[in-house]
């Protein structure tokens, strides 16, 4: 029996859904806080609470729509109706948000924001679950690295658009930026829909699995099988670690556009440079991370990523004004975040074998979202009532706690065989 190879072309097209989602959230985290403060003059704590709203919704929506799409059966597949419908609604409300900003109507703005977040929640889990659905088991970690690359490209696109289309001053016109993000989302999902015939590919994968005996292990595990006690313990510690590293990272990304203005005195969209360096570094680091993880395993790679990010947060505490050296720290943060992200989701999938992928994708996101509800409110309160300079000590503390809990994870790891070609190094294999 020949070795199964990842269909990179198909995985690239599947990744377009994640590219559109990542582009949207990069813009959302950078721009919405500025609108809330500069247009509606809201304080840090209220802004933080409103920035947490998408994650409050996500805690309910992601497992719900993940499970609904697990059970769905339409002519165009299980996930595709959610992806296409959610994108169309999200782009509509995104463009309406700019009108509410121009009118300076807070009620209109918050109502549209709520509908926008609802639309994004509709298709986030189905979009992420599409990759495991259409990829044979043993190739999922490899595919996950490609998907992460696609997401990073979406993030870079959003940052470039912010830099090009957001002018200086208190209240720039955000409509050109929103059109550029909406355009990316529509084109990405249109290409995905045209190139990936979900139902046909799912049947092919099923047939391949049956022929190679790949599906036997999963089929042998009944849906309701209880997870072994020691695996459950590892799963709990991994989920706590996910919560903690997102608490650290999201505090920085959500407050960064304001932090740079207040502490580093940067104007307009220039803050996007640092974030772009981090994202480009993440993209460039997938090949070395693939090499490292294939030698030392997922857990050690994640621990190295957490340590690297903690070091950078600690160093940033002492930065009083923007200096070009800051970009080196942000590059390191990008590498650390890539090391964590590529390996953590496959560990969840590995530990929850034989269960519904949509449901466990929802569980993974529930913990990352819970962190992103908690952190903008708490960090926002500290920024407003103590000092803006609390941001990086806060991130350092939670990052170090994630390191401690991650040490307690003893399952979901695997050391794949060494790769034969360069392209295969974009993965962390199952």
Give a summary of the structure in a few sentences.
The protein has 430 residues and is mostly helical.
Secondary structure topology:
Blueprint: H1 8-38, H2 44-51, H3 53-71, H4 80-103, H5 106-133, H6 140-165, H7 175-195, H8 198-212, H9 216-220, H10 229-262, H11 272-296, H12 298-316, H13 326-351, H14 357-385, H15 391-407
Helix pairs in contact: 1-2, 1-5, 1-6, 1-7, 1-10, 2-14, 3-5, 3-14, 4-5, 4-7, 5-14, 6-7, 6-11, 6-13, 10-14, 10-15, 11-12, 11-13, 12-13, 12-15
Question: What do these coordinates show?
Answer:
The protein has helices at residues 8-38, 44-51, 53-71, 80-103, 106-133, 140-165, 175-195, 198-212, 216-220, 229-262, 272-296, 298-316, 326-351, 357-385, 391-407. The protein starts with 7 loop residues before the first helix and ends in a 23-residue tail after the last helix. Helix 1 runs antiparallel to helix 7 and helix 6 (140-165) runs antiparallel to helix 13 (326-351). It is mainly alpha-helical. The radius of gyration is 21 Å and the shape is globular. It has one domain (9-426): MFS general substrate transporter like domains (Growth Hormone, Chain: A, Up-down Bundle), CATH 1.20.1250.
